[in-house]
Amino acid sequence: MNYLLHLTIYFCIYAILAMSLNVMVGYCGKLTLASSGYFAIGAYAYALATVKLGWHFVPAIFLGILIAALASLVLSIAAWRFKGDVFVMFSLAVQAIILGVCVNWAVGSAEFGTWANLTNGPLGISAIANPVHTRGNFAVLALALMGIAAILCRLLLSSPFGRILLAMRDDELALRGLGKGVKMAKVYAFAFSCGLAALAGSLYAAYLGYINPSVAALDFSVLWLCMAIIGGMGNLYGPFAGAAILLLLPEMLRFAQLPTAVADDLRLLLYGVFLILLTFFRPQGICGRYRVD
Amino acid sequence: MLAIFADGFISGLGTALLAVAFAVVYLPTRVFYIALGGIFAFVPYVVWACLTAGFGVIASFACGIFSGIFFSVLAEAVLHGPLEQRKTAHDGHFVCSLGYYIILIQIVCLIWGTQKKAFRLGADVMTEVGGVRLSLAQFTGAIAAILILTGFYLWVQHSKLGIQFRALADNSRELALAGRNITALRLLAFAISGAFAAASAIMFASDLGFHPYSGLDAVLIAMAAAMVGARWSLFGAVGMGIGIGIVRAQAGFVFSAQWQDPVTFIILIGVLWLQEVFSAKRRLEALS
Question: Which residues touch A195 (CB under 8 Å, ≥6 apart)?
């Protein structure tokens, strides 16, 4: 039972991340590799707020979302000018800088949590507060947050603003010709998307009780992008399918009685194969509508 | 100070090789060829396997280069070529290349494991050039990189095929209308890319050792160099690659090795912005 609850919590975290990528990629049409950076912003903000400032769960989560939304300006302002491969490169640069900050904002002798040693460097932050004391309660909390995120996505993306995003993805020039504010639409959409990534990061930090700079690693961005693409984007169902596949594939490999390391490598290998097969045979992913082709 | 500059210059030559590998595919095809990271990671293992099987150094390096060419040509023949025929957009090529990268890396992990390896046991032989102490791997790698880049420059500038190759990068559609075999030229571009990536991988692996995840980091820096330096010219990538190598060495000296990536990417963001701000104003329809 405990293991099922553990899977449920991870499913919620992945689904929120997939929803975040769905807004950025599926609705705005901007491929990004910076998602792990914004995830890390949420995780670190939550950790610092609870460990050093003694804040409660809800305000700490909102702090992470706020900082990530502000930091999303770097990406959204870049998206005013850059598109396609150059934007991917830009997002990669943002991710590298956030990872660099997580690793390096620490002077060995300074006390953790001060201006000189904010992130505690490669050692990371431990003893992060968990708002509930049992795994079952945490699963309920994670499900509730995932539900709120899904409702927000539903409301936002089925609103006139959501239709502006879709139109911007399909033909930005035509939308500008109609007098719509494309620049601010990008700012709002990116802030929402990065805020969701930060929410997932906060949840992750609260659940594990420990984070280190590896949460901002590029490998995670790549993995989560795979998850979003495989599940599908451009609607509300794709992110859940992506999260389920990311979670269930290793569980299925468990039945093959393979050593853990081999099963991990095989799981990633299968993601690679899925990506290629989907590009050829189902560019919109398993449940999505937006074709990444 | 001179030693740090030389160190940066030599590592920049390796990055330049990799940046050219990216640019020779990116300029004519616009494929964001992230799978180069997989090739970069795979090749040193092929060389290492050949060396441990008793092959000579030259034969092992040749096997490594051929494996790079093979994997790159395979990417075009099986993935990007068919996708191009389906008129797939750049994002589709990127996702496919990402899938190929993941497959190559995981094959390396499954066959050889994830531990760091090296071609030699113990410290390298040191040599002194112009008052700067360099390892033999650095010295020979630098000479090889300069020879390869010079040879490529001469081939592109002066041979008939090289001129066709430049034309492919400038305007592939017009070249096709002139009756040239675009498919063969694209295959050639991928083959050159694989060879350059393999040469760069061997150069870095000889000096620093290698592990399966070394590919992505190296290739992303090279891609950044190519995106900034080679958006309009093949050899801008060489200059930018060397420049990045020197900047990274200085950043490692002034701050720490962990600041190398952030400093590199901050500078690249700055250069991209400046390029965009000071580039000629485009017509509105050109922006879509």
Answer: A65, A66, A68, A69, A72
